[in-house]
Design brief:
Blueprint (H helix, E strand, L loop, with lengths): L2 H19 L9 H9 L34 E11 L5 E12 L4 E7 L3 E4 L6 E3 L3 E10 L9 E10 L13 E12 L2 E10 L13 E11 L4 E10 L9 E11 L4 E10 L4 E10 L1
Antiparallel strand pairs: 1-2, 1-14, 2-3, 2-4, 3-6, 4-5, 6-7, 7-8, 8-9, 9-10, 10-11, 11-12, 12-13, 13-14
Length: 284
């Protein structure tokens, strides 16, 4: 395959993966493995899963929560994700999140990807620093406990191309406005995200499509310290001839103290990618 054609196909598959990473995800992008997948004509998508804490969005499920902290609250979330491909390829990368409440209704979310290591079955492994995501959000409606009206937040995610390795990062900015809806029903907490990813197409080759990205999660609080989660995720086709992606995840979180909690998520997508993510939160 010629270098120009390979690079174009690489960008197409990158979109499918970056949609998963644009929250966060998403994250979390594994470009070198994508290049190797192109050589073997397979279409694999890496799913990155993030979790929801009782008052903030942390890194266990992809869905963002509609619950915010009070002005001045901050949260640091750290996780390591391990992935296994059906063909034997593996990947390990760090996931980090810094969140600060600018007011009771506004927050700033910063998500750097400090390190990625990819070891595809075919070809040599690569590593390096990933991209940066910055997301401001604002709550336009508070959850009304006396009605069915949910809490609603407006958010705008900017992906900044900070990757140090061209086989890890795309070298382009991405833009995603989205809405976050959340509703509590006793011990049940439901959250829904719907966003539109504006994509910058390469200067040559086939035009890439913008994408619709959606997430739905349900949390059940067994106790004030222990919760379990379930999530489904979907994104539309990134270009003509390419299918969208569907995925699911289960997760659990345990709060040791008011300020420290730990979590674990297990995800699987329609491209036979299994991901496991343990992590912890520190919040004040």
């Amino acid at each position: 395959m010629r270098a120009s054609a390979c690079f174009h196909e690489f960008l197409i598959l990158y979109l499918k993966r970056s949609a998963l990473a644009f929250r966060r995800p998403n994250s979390f992008i594994h470009f070198y493995h994508t290049m190797q997948s192109l050589q073997s004509n397979s279409r694999r998508v890496i799913l990155s899963m993030c979790l929801i804490s009782s008052a903030h969005a942390d890194l266990v499920l992809e869905t963002e929560t509609a619950e915010l902290g009070k002005k001045g609250d901050w949260l640091f979330s750290q996780a390591v994700q391990v992935e296994w491909e059906k063909d034997g390829g593996r990947g390990i990368f760090t996931v980090n999140q810094f969140e600060y409440a600018l007011s009771d209704r506004a927050e700033l979310l910063i998500e750097p990807f400090f390190y990625e290591w990819n070891n595809p079955k075919l070809g040599k492994s690569v590593n390096g620093v990933g991209d940066l995501e910055v997301t401001p959000s604002y709550m336009i409606m508070i959850d009304d406990e006396k009605s069915w009206l949910p809490a609603a937040l407006l958010a705008f995610k900017l992906k900044v191309p900070t990757a140090t390795n061209p086989e890890i990062g795309s070298g382009q900015f991405d833009y995603q406005p989205y809405i976050i809806l959340g509703k509590n029903f006793g011990p049940w907490i439901c959250n829904f995200n719907l966003g539109y990813d504006f994509v910058t197409s390469p200067s040559k080759g086939e035009k890439l499509r913008d994408q619709v990205i959606s997430d739905l999660s349900v949390e059940y609080k067994f106790t004030p310290k222990f919760s379990m989660f379930a999530e489904i995720f979907a994104n539309s086709s990134p270009t003509k001839g390419e299918k969208g992606t569907f995925a699911g995840a289960l997760a659990t979180e345990y709060r040791f103290t008011e300020h420290i909690s730990t979590y674990l998520s297990v995800g699987y997508d329609t491209n036979s990618v299994l991901s496991i993510r343990p992590g912890f939160n520190i919040e004040f």
